[in-house]
Amino acid sequence: MTAIYYVEDDADIAENVKTYLEQRQMEVSVFDSVAGAKEALRRRRPELLLADRNMPDGSGDELCRLVRRLWGGQVPVLYLTVRGGTADIVGGFENGADDYVVKPFALEVLYSRILALLRRSSRVEEMHLSCGCLSLDRERQAVFCRQEEIRLSSLEYQILLLLMENKGKTVTRKQLLEQVWDSGGNFVNDNTLTVAMKRLREKLHNPSCLKTIRSFGYRMEESI
Prior knowledge:
single chain; alpha/beta; Rossmann fold; Arc Repressor Mutant, subunit A; 4-stranded antiparallel β-sheet; transcription; WalR-like; Sig_transdc_resp-reg_receiver; DNA-binding
């Protein structure tokens, strides 16, 4: 199911939207405060953030900026706003929002906007992989730990890419040895793999999402 975080302080609106979307096979988690949503966002990556831009304890812009810091463009942000003024809309886009819907809105319209953003983000996600604090941009062959770009060797990059492509699955040392190679195009040996993994961990600041499965292999998984 598509996981959506919905930030809304109006309980009636929140319940109507949640019911409508869940009937369409979406998993909706409702938060009535910016603080609660921030805490949840740091624990888990949703597939879309739906947020009232003006909340009693803060602004949806804070959440949007947090999402962009954590996952770049992988999580689309859709604002709900009671104001249709140009300044309000432009301000939201400047903070990273992807689209907006003005209250009051028809649920069918909201649903169509959500589907459009999910289709767009699925194309983006093909080029961007993430796990925990790490993100990998296939197009640029760039790796980031939070906002810091990490310089990796060709071998280290290949190892990380293979692990992230198989997030949630254990990749055996044998698989790594068969599928990665050094800068000269040669398959690596067991000792080279051990050294490369050690250097990779160090460069990535020993991320908790990179697990060692003793005497077997490695696995990337989201930390709970």
